[in-house]
Amino acid sequence: MITRKRLLNRRGFTLVEMLFVVALTGVIAAIAIPMMGNTLGFFRLSGDARNLSNAIALSKMRAASVFSRVRVYIDRTTRTFHMETWNSTTNQWTAETGNTSLSQGVIFSFLSVSSAPPNTQGTIAEAATCRDNAGTLVLNTSCVIFNSRGIPIDSTTASPVVDAVYVTDNTAVYAITISATGMVRTWKTPPNAAPSWVLQ
Q: 46-67, pLDDT tens digit by residue?
């Protein structure tokens, strides 16, 4: 039989204690949620930069392995990219992979950044506009093309070029640069007019 004294010792939490816990939880959430959003944004942008860098490095290796031209085709309108191989029998580009989309809020751009990463491009610019199978320029596109030796070339198969592709979510700008020898590197800077590029 439970005595009255034992019942009094089984009290719950008071209203003040409950309100204190709720208020403390609210303060912690108010601090943590914006930080978590910034962290997720960083992971989305850096992940897209890594995906693009990997696609470019893969196309370089693919070009050397199939002894043909291979390119990464970037569509700025749909914010996608994919790899294509030149078929010399049919004289046309053939898609090797499906489209890879950028994350929400990430675009192909260098915003107001005024200069390219050090020892890369003379003037900051996106990779050259792609051409279709007939040789016509395709608006709002960029292509990074490698010849059969893994050397970056332009759409007229001219001498080696220095290319770059830029992605941003307005909090940072990532550059994927391709040197005239085919070296692929990734850089990062805040989106300032005077950048401070850091090799990743």
A: 999 999 999 999 999 999 999 9
